[in-house]
Structure formats: structure tokens, C-alpha cells
Amino acid sequence: MNPLLSMAFRNVLRNRRRTLITLAAVTIGVAAVGTIRGVLNGLQGNIIKGSIETTLGALQIHRTGYLANVMSTPLSMDFEADEALLSKVRGVKGVTAVAPRIQFAGTLTLSVPEGQEQPEALFFAAVAVDPKLEPAVTPQRSKLFTEGTVLDETHVVLGDALAAAFGAKRESEAVLLAPDRDGSLNGELAQVGGAMRAMMPGEMKIAVVPLSLAQRLLRMEGRITELAVGVDDVNRLPQIAAELRAALGPQFEVHLWNELAPERKTIMGIQDGISVIVSIVFVMLMLLGVANTMLMSVLERTREVGTMMAVGVTRASVMTLFLLEALVLGVLGAAGGLLLMVGLTFGLAQRGITFTPPSATMSMEIFPFLTFGFTAGVLLTAVGGAVLFALYPAFRASRLRPVQALAGR
Amino acid sequence: MTSLLLALLLSAEPPSTKEVLAKYDAIMAPPTFKAVAQMTAHRDDGSTRGYKMAILKGVDDKMRLWFQEPAAVRGQEMLRNGENFWVYMPNLKRALRLASRDNFQGGDFNNADVLRANYTRDYEGTVKEDPKKADQWVVELKAKTPDSAYDSVKLWVTREPLGMPVHGEYYTASGKMLRSADFSEVKDFGNGLKRPAKITMRNEIATQRFSEMLWESVDVAATVGEGKFGLSDLGH
Question: Could you say which of A89, B18, B40, B127 has the lowest number of CB atoms within 10 Å?
């Protein structure tokens, strides 16, 4: 072993208590930063998977300009859901499923027996889906449904807030009123198939309606406003979207799930920001601990440095020695941190964390996981940072004058 | 002479809100009448859709409306009785409650605009001069009940005859203008009723959209049977 390196090891072990405290700081810092990120990975993985597999689908296709006008729920920006179009979409590599939909808004009320006061209709936003094709694109949607819920050609599923507002039970008769494609009012009857929990805040007054019923209600036989697309690999979404755009031409627009749910993208951005700030605080505290240890070490060993220089050790070697000591501290601490981080994340992932977002009614199970890139980044920051923060103490040591240092000044 | 009259008008004290609203109601919503009207909804994409309807108004602000055109809504009926609005759907053979502030057939009027026009009962406020419009009063109104069509209304009416509407602005509780209306083509409908035959309602949120309501006939002398305003009469 390089003599300087073996000296560095020995020096680190000289004051064991101080070394242990410093190592503990680095270990806890690294483990905390890594574990927080791991939990966040689990949460965000859940949001992504939940968004794609319960409601949105990985990609959506609309008539060009639809999304820009989405606030007015433009039924007139519809298109024919013919087999030619569907097979064009299915033909793109990576597409596993495609399902037709209509997004619309209307009012809903329950029909009550003769003589009873009918409740006033409530506004709702609905997605109309084909009960047979939809599960291939959003396989987890039924997980939001309460037990025993049915979604088929005659049953609608109401958001739980909407269902609760009417006291709707299964097989209650619901009346849907909506302006049709031309704006004229129309109504249809449906059975309530059950209720649906909200995964994200603000999803309360929603309903899932069978496509055929919506097409009668909106007088849009054979027409839809949206195609939802399932893919084999979520990491290839941008490429698949680009190929779809090329295949479909300028009349259609293709959007990724996160462009369709900008609020979720924002939430995830905020989470990332907060975790970065917390990580920086942890890393700074742990590195300042290293710097403090190194500075104390230099001050204590003034005579020793003087002796080394007196017997011919160069200034550069002195500086290298102290930097190597910091490196040893950093590597040992990071290694401990890695072990702790992996242990914690693995333990949490085994058990799962159950969490209900505020004002949502569907709890989520979070399984933390680590990514190689971030973990490697944290370890490198700990090791590199330890060396960087030792620069000043090491520089001070290397600038000592041998005669004065020998005198302990 | 004209200038003298104008000077007289200008110097006039504003009449009471009650007086102006009573005149407005007498012009726009006589106690009973039978009418035929057409609405044309102009949509964002430039397309239009026309509706033809027969309207019956009974005492105590009861109102019933039959849609005749287009085919998609033929047989639909609307009823207002007290605070409640109903729509009868012929395909479902039943009447359903509507919210007063829902759009009227996807146009830019709301249900209360068409079926509930009793300003005396719904609003209170003040009458002021508009320095730019010497021949008009501007009436600033606040809703008395949440069932009224809007939270607040600014209404320009002529001074002579008093209460004939010219322009209206309709606001939310937060002061955002939702819609604005122009009343035009004052026409003599007979039996002493002179009122604007055309109301153009502009959507101030989606500004490409507007709707026109054209009153073809308003017969205030028609006999209006009380039995026409029962819920069970809808569809018959």
C-alpha cells in the first residue's frame, strides 16, 4: 500500500471516538438522503402507474386543437372511431392496446318513486369508455371501484362524492342530462353500477359511463373525442408518441400522460424540489462535520507536521496526507450509509407504506426503491465532498513553517 | 324644443328602483301571455343552431315552454313553478329538475333568463344617471335570492317610456362579467304591449359565442288556463 495511504488509515484510527462520531454523521446523512429519495421514488412510481393504469392511459390521441379547448369540453372536435384508424394506431411498434372514449360534462340526478321530491341535478364530468376495450389500456381502473361495482353497457360508475351526494346505491336509476354535440339538451337513463374512489385530490364529481350510452346521450353514434393508448414500455413513451404522430398526420395530436395531468407533474416537481433542499441540508451538515474533524486534527498535530517537514516530507505530501484522511473518512462513511440506506429501503419495501393523500379517498401503498444513478450520485457527493471540505484544513497544514510548527505555534 | 326636453330630462331626479323594475317587469314579463319565440345559438366554431318554442306565462310567475324545433328537442318541455325548474324529456317520459343557472339549450341564456323574469321579486338596488347616456337610467341590482339568474346586474333602461331595456350586464358574485345583452327592435305586439323583439346575449367568458332570442308574437290578451302549470300536465 502507498505509505501515505497507510499513514492516513492509521491517523484516522488514532482518535477512534472522534472518527466514529464523524463516520456516524456521514453514514446517517447518506442513508437519510438515499432513503428519502427511495420513498419518493415509490410515491412517484405510484402516481405515474396510477395515472396511467387507472385513468389516463399512457398516451392519448385527440383531434388537433382539442387540448387547447379542453375547458369548453368540445364535443364538436370529435372523430369517427373506425377500424382503419384503430388499426393504424395498433400498427405502431410498442402499442399494446387502444380504447375509444368521449370526455363530456352534464348533470346527473337520481330518479325517485312517484310522489317523492326529486333531488336537484348536480354537475358532473364524465369519461365514456368501452367496457370491453378499456381494461386493456387502464387495467387498474377497477381497483378504484368499491366492492361489487359493475361497469357494463347499462351501468355507470359514480365518483364516491357524487354517489354520496344522492345516497345512490347499486341499481339505483340515474338520469343523465347533457347538451348533445349540437348543444341541444338530451337525457338518458342508466343503472348505478357502484362507486369509485378518488386517487388524486379534486376528482370528486366524476363518473365513468359506457360509451354506447354516451353516444346515444350526446347523439354521436360511432364518434368519439379521444383514443387512449396502452404501451409495452413506459420509458419509450416519447418515441412511441413520435411514431404515432408520424402515422396519424397533422389532424391528430398525441399527448403523454404527464402532459394530460399537468397538476401531477407539478406535484412531482414540488416533491423533487423539497427533497433536493432537504438533501442539500443533510449533505452540508455532514460535510461540515468532516471539515471540523479535519481542522481539529490539523491543529492538534502541528508539532507532528513540523517534524514531518523537518525530516524532508514535502508540502504537497502533507496536503495529500490530510486529503487522504478525509477520503478514508468519506469512503467508510459512504459505505456505512449505503448499507443503512439499502437496509431501510428494502425493509420499507417489504412492508409497504400505506398512505392516503389529503382529500383523496383512495389510499395508496408505497414501495420505496433505489435507482443506481441517484445512489451513485449520493455516494460520490459524500466522498468527493469530504475531500473538498478537507481542502482548507489540508492547505493550512501544508503551509506550516517547520520551525514554528515544531515549537507548537 | 328637443333640447329643452333633453334639459328637462337631464335635470330629472332618478325614479325609485321599485318604480323602474315594476315598469321593466310590465314590459318584459306581463302577468299572463302566450308567445312564440326563436333562439339562435352561435357557437365558437361559427356554427349555429336554431330553436323554435311556444311559451305560456301564468300568474305568480309560472311559465311553461314547448320546444317545436329542431327535431332533436321536439317534444321537450320546460316548466317553472315557484323556485323550481323542470324539463320534460319525451324519450324518458319524465320530468327532471334543472338548475336555474344552467345554460338554456346549450345557448348563452340561462334557464332563469328565459323562464324567470320577475326582477321586482329577485333584485334590489339603485337607479343612477349615466353621464354618457342622457336618455337612459342605469339600474344597479343585487340578487335577493340565490335562485335569481345572476348575483348582480347592471341594466340600462330608457327614461321615456320608463323601464324599456336597452342593454344589460350580468355579473357573478365576484364581480366577473358573465354575459351582456342588447335589447333591440322595439315592436308593438298589440293590446298595449310594446317591447324589444330581439335580445342578443353575448357570452363574455367564451367571447366567440352569442345567442339571439327573437320574439315573434306575444299575446297578453290570450286566456291562460291554470291547469297548464302542473307537473303532471307535462308531456300532455
Answer: B18
Q: What is the DSSP letter of B136?
A: E
Task: Give the mean pLDDT of chain A.
Answer: 88
* pLDDT given at position B5: 56
Range of the domain at A352: 3-50+265-406
| A235 and A272 share one domain | no
B44-81: pLDDT as tens digits: 778 888 999 999 988 888 899 999 988 889 999 999 88
Mutate to test the interface with B, among A69, A76, A182 (most CBs of B within 10 A): A182
In this structure, the answer to whether residues A72 and A103 fall within a common structural domain is yes
Domain membership of residue A59 (yes or no) is no
CATH class of the domain whose range is B13-233:
mainly beta
Is the Cβ pair B72, A180 closer than 8 Å?
A: yes
Q: Say yes or no: A338 and A239 in one domain.
A: no
User: Same domain, yes or no, for A38 and A79?
Assistant: no
Same domain, A114 and A211: yes
Predicted local distance difference test score (pLDDT) of residue A242: 92
- Give the mean pLDDT per block of 10 residues along chain B (236 residues): 55 80 88 92 85 90 89 90 85 83 82 79 86 87 81 89 90 88 90 91 86 92 83 81
Contacts of A72 in chain B (CB under 8 A): 44, 206
Percentage of chain A exceeding pLDDT 70: 95
ipTM rounded to 2 decimals = 0.78
- Whether A78 and A64 have beta carbons less than 8 Å apart is answered as no
Residues in B touching A183 (Cβ below 8 Å): 41, 43, 49, 105-107
% of chain A at pLDDT higher than 90: 44
Number of structural domains in chain A: 2
Is A122's pLDDT higher than 90?
no
What's the distance, Cα to Cα, between the start and end of chain A in Å?
33
| B61-80 core/surface letters (b: 16 or more CB in 10 A; e: else) | bbbbbbbeeeebbeebbbbb
Residue A408: all three cell numbers together: 507548537
State how far the alpha carbon of B169 is from the alpha carbons of A2, A166, B25, B103, in Å: 87, 35, 17, 17
**Across the interface, do A185 and B206 touch by the CB < 8 Å criterion?**
no
